[in-house]
Amino acid sequence: MREEIITSGRMNPHIDPHLAIWHWHIPLYLFLGGLAAGIMFFASLYTILGKENKFRGAVKRAPIIVPFLLIIGLTALFFDLKHKLYFWQLYTIIRIQSPMSWGAWTLMAITPLSMVWVAINIKEFFPKWDWKFFILKELDKFFTKYRVYLAWVILYFSVILGIYTGILFSAFNARPLWNTSILGPLFLTSGLSAAAAVIILFSKRQKERINFAKIDIMLIGIELFLIIHMFMGFLASTQVQIEAAQLFLGGPYTAPFWIFVVIIGMILPAILEFLELRKFHIPAIIPVILVLFGSLMLRFIISYAGQLSRWLY
Amino acid sequence: MRYAMAIDTKKCVGCSDCVVACQTENNVPIGHCRDWIVEITDGTYPELEIEIRSERCNHCENSPCVRCCPTGASHYEDGGIVVVTPNKCIGCGACITSCPYDARYPHPDGYVDKCTFCMHRVKKGQQPACVSVCPTKCMYFGDLDDANSEVSQILKKRKYKTLIPEAGTKPHVFYLI
């Protein structure tokens, strides 16, 4: 039998025997960033459509967690850096070819914008809230008056943030599993699905909950479609991508991916949400937690499995 | 000017002198390496072939590491040498992930480190440390744009290959076969 044995004298930490440079920080950030992007997308979308009062959960309530999600995500990113004191170098240059660069700048824009959004909607949670200083009151008035324009800006940035979480991976041709343009739309859809689930929790109106349960089922359907397409693309591609797909089709990530991400994180919550629409009594929190779990696991598994996939030479 | 290296796989014996020379010259931290030896045994017993290669950063013309660096720390120096500026590097690991050759590693001081073609020596007109110590003289270094350079001459005469050309990186390290 023909055999090929490759012996390498290289044993660099984090590089050999296989790449292990990105740990929990990156997938956690990608999940939080995607979720934040999704929530801000729905908040700005329904503001632009003029349905703020119909969809208060999406527009006024759910966004309150976004600044926290982004700050936790950014902190995780900061801890991932190995030359931490130089992090400010990110903001000395815009490098169009580097997804990480425009991701950093997008975060720089959307984090304060999400805080402004929470501030102008703070009375939803604290009706007696009073901005103590004149300037803050004026700013509140200004942003409330121009909130539709603000929503347009946030809408664009949230889509960029949501897609960027996937493009960050897909831009690396050195890791065949990540090198698929499906990852951008897949992570965006997953982030939107997680956001729809969170909005269900924050919403007080049954009609809004039903609306977002429907949206979530549709998004899960799109996600499954994208996942199938991703594997079809891999299997019809080069040897390295066929081998990357094998990680999920018999390889070490088969059980975690199909059980945790696809069955528990997508199919099961979609069925539960569907039953809810059919008037079965299911605690809303169960499908929500399952969707969030699936969304988190998707990032963890793609992140770790991608670092296992490589070119052979 | 386009610096390149040609390595004769028929002459290399895998002695690791180049590895030690690099570690000494560049003060590479213990347990890490900027260049390394790969030995490939291929075939059906007893018809086996062995190829020994001294590998390092390929100083690609189309470097994914330079492309993905968010701060511009990874950049091209004169002659197409790919280097990292430690004070600009944030240690995000994007370049490490982007390299199909896994030629970069995180330096214990935080920044990302890799082969520089011994730029500090090349600027003085010297050969990279690995080339200068090779006991079998299997490595050639020089300017591809200079038709008379050692590397251009040997590439004219011999068959050669680059590693993973299908990755589209246009490597500047050539292996004579």
Index terms:
heterodimer; A: 313 residues; mainly alpha; Formate dehydrogenase/DMSO reductase fold; 11 helices; B: 177 residues; alpha+beta; Alpha-Beta Plaits; two-stranded antiparallel sheet; 25% strand
Low-confidence stretches of chain A: none
Number of domains of chain B: 1
At the first level of CATH, the class of chain B is Alpha Beta
Q: What is the typical, i.e. mean, pLDDT of chain B?
A: 96
**Per CATH, which architecture of chain B?**
2-Layer Sandwich
Major beta sheet summary of chain A: none
Number of domains of chain A: 1
Shape of chain A: globular
CATH topology of chain A: Formate dehydrogenase/DMSO reductase fold
**SS class of chain A:** mainly alpha
Overall pLDDT confidence of chain A: 95
- Strand-residue fraction of chain A? under 5%
What is the H level of CATH, i.e. the homologous superfamily of chain A?
Formate dehydrogenase/DMSO reductase domain
**CATH T-level fold name of chain B:** Alpha-Beta Plaits
What oligomeric state do the depicted chains represent? Answer: heterodimer
Structural class of chain B: alpha+beta
Beta content of chain B: 25-35%
Q: Can you walk me through this structure?
A:
The complex is a heterodimer of chains A (313) and B (177). Chain A has helices at residues 25-48, 56-61, 66-80, 99-120, 134-145, 147-170, 183-202, 206-235, 239-246, 254-277, 285-308, and one strand at residues 3-8. Chain A has 313 residues and is mainly alpha-helical. Chain A has a single domain (25-308), classed as Formate dehydrogenase/DMSO reductase fold (Up-down Bundle), CATH 1.20.1630. With 177 residues, chain B is α+β, with helices and mostly antiparallel strands. Chain B has one domain (3-176): Alpha-Beta Plaits. Chain B contains six helices and ten strands; from the N terminus they run E-H-E-E-H-E-E-H-E-E-H-H-E-H-E-E. Chain B has a four-stranded mixed β-sheet. A two-stranded antiparallel ribbon of chain B has the order 2-3. Chain B has a two-stranded antiparallel ribbon with strand order 4-5. The radius of gyration of chain B is 16 Å and the shape is globular. The two termini of chain B are 25 Å apart. The relative contact order of chain B is 0.26. The model of chain B has no long low-confidence stretch (mean pLDDT 96).
